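On clarity, I found the account of how folds are encoded harder to follow than it need be. What matters is that the chain and its backbone geometry are given together, residue for residue. The format is easy to grasp once an entry is in front of the reader. For illustration, here is how one protein appears when written out as sequence plus structure tokens.
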Amino acid sequence: MILGASAAWSQRVAGKRSVSSPARGEITRFYDPVTENIVARLTDPRTNSRLPALQNRFVSARNHFLLFSSDRSGRMAPFHLDLRTGALRQLARPERLDPKSLCMDEKERWLYFLDGQSLNEVALGNLRRRTIAEGVTAFAMGASGADLVVVKDRRLQRLEAGKAVPVAGNATGAIVRPGATGCAFWRDEPRPKMEFWYSPFPPPEQEPKLLTSGAVVNPIWAPHGESLLFLREIVIPPRDAGAEPITTAEIHEVSISSGIDLRIASTSQFAAFTPNANGSVYVGASRSKAQPTVLLLLHATGREFTLCEHKASDAAAVSPVFSPNSQRVYFQSDREGKWVLYSVNVEKLIEPTNI
């Protein structure tokens, strides 16, 4: 939950001031011009740096590091960032890396990513690399590499002891349920419609279960794994002729057991969001052109608090996520021309969560 939030937030101020503290590697800090909260810029703005998909595990719960992709070596490659020292380490040299695909196992020993349509595994200790599967367009994992699902030719399969077990057809992406008891997956329909489905492990004889459909985006498991969270987009027609419609969004959850779809909260035009480790707080990126900000939303009350500006050209790509202990928020923005990684400390605002 948020601690003393109403007293903690600063008023809007003009300008941008730097913080007089020594830089660590490429990490520098500045005061956000909207809230005066201190924002850490984690990567050099002369190169592109990208976070993985917000559903993936890429922030360490034990050793204070973050995994990301960067083109600083000439083409996109996976990197390890030590958040204490700012030191960078390149982890592999793929030919056609999918930056969103980076994901590590729960014990933080292995990195998985897509190089073209090859699913690769890299040991974070000695950087030994091997190819797990070919022809893969998307994948998702649970706690370990033993809980892998892949999409090949739009067919969702579970990899079990080197064998592919069919799960569902006509799939474009998936996320493994906490505990690896099943997975949610999605089927693209003509925009803006999408469908979210669920299949348990092992796959039953009957068809997978349709969870929800429509203008739905950003599927992510609730921490307890009993429901799927997502954004339902709502287009508000313009009042004046010639004006553009406004797209806003609501946070919803759908129960896996009952299939009941409940609205959790309205948002100030969230384009992307994630919950913290116990689901008490959400962090979101607003698509508002007037206020392109990163915000916290309290689950219990639906109240929002502004953390900082993001000013990204694509709010959905900001990908805001919490650290595993809920004490920092990480996001990305191209506000400085190239995509750069940032973080904000929220330890005075949110209670720590167990990791």
Observations:
- Confidence is low (pLDDT under 50) at residues 3-15.
- The helical segments are 5-8.
